[in-house]
Amino acid sequence: MAEDAKTPGHILITGAAKRMGRAFARTFGAAGWFVTIHVNTSLGEAADTLEEVKKAGGDGRILAFDLTDFSAYDAFFEKLAADSPPLTALINNASMFEYDEAWTSEPATLEKHFHVNAAAPILLSRRFAELVRDRGGEGVIVNMLDNKVFAPNPDYFSYSISKYALLGATELMAMALAPHVRVCGIAPGVTFVSGVQSDDDYEETKAMNPLKRAIEVEDICRTARFIVESRTLNGEVITVDGGQKLMKLERDVAFMTERQK
What we know:
By secondary structure, the protein is of the alpha/beta class. It has helices spanning 19-30, 43-55, 73-81, 107-134, 157-176, 199-205, 217-229; strands spanning 10-13, 34-39, 59-64, 87-92, 139-144, 181-188, 237-240. The chain has one domain (10-255): Rossmann fold.
């Protein structure tokens, strides 16, 4: 019988050494999943993440890999398949986030953002889907987006348009990879200190939404589990921002405090 992604299996989470990726790892570990913690260079923080996964009752391992080294994907997926349950879920969480503007954007900045935020998730998703299809199973991909794709402002120009590219890829892959793999996305609002923000700036802006509530990490983790466990959910992007996208902010929330204006 083909496995399904609702049953705890093996999940790969990119950029899982800290912040949102660590929270995902801890959540899925606690739910019984075997968690592969992808990291680029932050091995010490990845070890802390793995310890948290195990304390939550789960199991996993760490794989270090440069997502922009596209020639090394074959070797990476060979490691993924070794000594672990079949891979059934993927969260494309790793992200490049550097400030630029349309007036100042340079080719190198555009390239960095597109490689990490668009090309890598697309290529990882394709390889993941091939694994699932070839063994006759079911799989699910969750792409981490940004509520900026539904409420644009011109700040973080290269980052923003790379997330627009991933939004389009999410919809196209949801069609192309079915029926073997479902593809959805999450578009969160500000959840951690963002870019140039200080801790004080974050405290001032974290509840800048119609609900006047901060976006909790647990809200996003619950959304990811809902997507993974809902076998007929495909091609959907769920915004978790307290309704902030309805406010049509003129600038990124990082610049919406009196100190930053």
